[in-house]
Structures are given as C-alpha cells and as structure tokens.
Amino acid sequence: MLSTMMLLGILFGLLTQAYTLPVKNSTGVHEGKVRLKRKYSDETPDWDEMNIMDKIMEVNNRLRAPRGMSFKEGDIASSYIRSAITCPGNTCLWPKSVDGFVYVPYIISPVYDDMDRITIETGMQDISSGTCIKFVPRTHEASFLDIQPRYGCWSFLGQTGGSQTLSLQTPGCMWSGVASHEFMHALGFVHEQSRSDRDHYITIIWKNIMPDYINNFRKHITNNLNSPYDYSSVMHYGRYAFSEDGGPTIIPKPDPYIPIGQRDGPSALDLHKINVLYDCGATE
Ligand SMILES: [Zn+2]
C-alpha cells in the first residue's frame, strides 16, 4: 500500500513537472509565436519575398549570446564592456585613409564554400561600389572584421578595435543583402526605425509586440545625417517584426501602405548616408 502511494506520488510529481515545463520555458513559447507571425499573409512564406531584416530574424530567433556578450535589436552584438548601441561623437568609425578611401580590413573563415564567399563579397561590393568604403583582405592591420559562420547573422556596431567577429551563418544568412545589413552595422549604423525622428514617419503598435522584445523598438539618439527617413533602407525592420500574434508592429504614416524594408541590398539612401557619415565626397 505504502509503495503504491509512493509510486503514485512519483508519477504525480513527474506529470506536474512535465506540465509546468512549457510555462517555465517562456522563450520556447515565444519561439512558437515568432513562427506564427509568418501566417499573417495569404501567400506562402517565400524567402525571396521576405525583407532582409525578416530573413535575419528568422535565423536569429533562437540566438543566445555567447558568454560576455548580449544582442540588441535582434542582431547587434555588444560586449558587456562596451555596451553602447550608438556611436557618440563618431568614435566607432573606421579611419579614413589619405587617399580618401575608408579601408575595412577583413579575414574570412575557410569554412565558407565558393558560393558563400561570392554572396558575402557581393554584399561588400553593393556597399563599396556606391561609397568610399573598401573592404580589403587583412594584411597587418590591428583592427579588422573576422567574418565567421557562427550561429546567426550579427555584427558589432562600428569599429570596436582589434579583431571583431561578424557572423554570417551558412546557409541561413547567405544573402548578399543580409551581409550588407551586417556590414552597415559594422560601419556604425543602427536600424532605421530606431532613428530619433522616427515617430514622424511610423507608428509603433506597442500592443502587438511580444513583451520581451519591447526594448527592440527603443529610439536612439542618432545622427540622421540630414537624410530623409528611408522606408526602404536595408536597415529597416519589417512591418511584423517581433509581432506577438501576427499583427503589425510598425505602420508607416501618413500612408500605411508604404512598403517597408528591403529585399535586395542597400538602398540609394543607405549609400548616401554612408557617404555623408564617412565624408566620402570630401577629397573628390
Ligand atoms: Zn540589424
């Protein structure tokens, strides 16, 4: 009798433990919701149709920060030592060379195959062809990008000094636009909708945002470089970013139907902003 009671007790314990698990593991619940947001549209989700930030979030939604690091806004890495998400006084810019170009040295993991390398190099060229930024294989430079297929698509903001990892997972992040997006973070750009003046151009629908991700919609004190707000920036979140149950989290105004986000690569205004930030026209 006693042993039956004990057995029942153990069974009950196991059952309650099993039932409480999904509640305890709140990230697991949210992962389900992240996936659910794909169902907002009548069309079948199609990677080619997704904007770049949505692609990044699709890959990063289970991203956990390695020791000593955290991620902000889904894909901006920061170390605990250097946690600023903006770059005050342009202290994180890559230095400009006397010839007027800004050289960004990089090394690239040998794990990537030829197609991966072409994709990543296309992401670089889409920036360099319209600006004074030149991505160059590192020779001896002290500060450089270390491009690796770690878990997720992410970058630090601006130049951190020394070796800085920029992760482009393969195959998930193997889109040239995703690479350009992460390179723009490395050049010092935050997401377009976190601009200080964004409330003139978009409405954030706070009630539709997953509660744990509210912080991803904070405004930052940004240098907007006298450039117009750019709905089609490669740095813009998608309309349903971090949605709780499929409702929009960002609505353009006054016209709510303005397309937001970018599928291909840097917009003309993105390139313009790089040119202004790095003073690219100055020596021409
Ligand atoms: Zn980003």
TrEMBL record:
Domain spans labelled Peptidase M12A: 83-281
Enzyme class, first EC level, given as a word: hydrolase
EC number: 3.4.24.-
Cofactor note: Binds 1 zinc ion per subunit.
Binding positions for Zn(2+) per the UniProt entry: H181, H185, H191
InterPro entries registered for this protein in UniProt: MetalloPept_cat_dom_sf, Peptidase_M12A, Peptidase_Metallo, ZnMP_hatching_enz
Active site as annotated: E182
GO MF annotations in UniProt: metalloendopeptidase activity; zinc ion binding
Signal peptide: 1-20
SMART domains for this protein: ZnMc
Keyword Signal among record annotations: yes
UniProt KW Lipoprotein keyword: no
Names of the cofactor(s): Zn(2+)
GO annotation terms (biological process): proteolysis
Alphabetically ordered keywords of this record: Disulfide bond, Hydrolase, Metal-binding, Metalloprotease, Protease, Signal, Zinc
Lineage top rank: taxon: Eukaryota
SUPFAM superfamilies, per the entry: Metalloproteases ('zincins'), catalytic domain
Gene3D superfamilies cross-referenced by the UniProt entry: Collagenase (Catalytic Domain) (3.40.390.10)
Identification of the protein by name: Metalloendopeptidase
Organism, as annotated: Scomber scombrus (Atlantic mackerel)
Source taxonomy: Eukaryota, Metazoa, Chordata, Craniata, Vertebrata
